[in-house]
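Review form for a predicted model. The reviewer records the input and the model, then writes brief findings.
Reviewer: anonymous (R2)
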Amino acid sequence: MNNINIRLANFEDIPHLLPLMAQLGYPTSSKEFTKRFKIFTKLPGYGVAVACENSNIIGLVAWSKSSLFVSNTTRFHIEAIVLDQQYRGSGVGKKLMQFVEEMAKNSSPSIIDLTSGLRRAKDGSHEFYKKLGYQNEGYMAKLYLRKEIT
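Model under review:
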């Protein structure tokens, strides 16, 4: 895993991101994903980075950045993180999270938050986040509520 490079994603990466999105549980068409990628990456504070082994894209992390209303804190929300199945447990996911953490340090004080569905617990995602210091315990524990509007 010494040849791992983390860099910002670009439009040429889209075909290589589609299989990763499917592994994450969000399969999509090239046309739809290209449209979403363009909108997402043009928003201020939003971004996507990829992990490459040599020139092969093996993972991605996407984030959004916003200011909190209740404090002088910048929030980085992990919108998506996925690593190709054959590379899980190799430390590359940690490198992707550290990429976002380094950006957050430049916006200090800041927090990084994410949601991880219950279906992800069985593949070790929740334990992965806990090992990196992310928690949902104590007085700051969160309840995630959602309502879809169509």
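Findings: The chain has a mean pLDDT of 92.
Further findings: The beta strands are 4-8, 47-53, 56-67, 74-83, 110-114.
Recommendation: see findings above.
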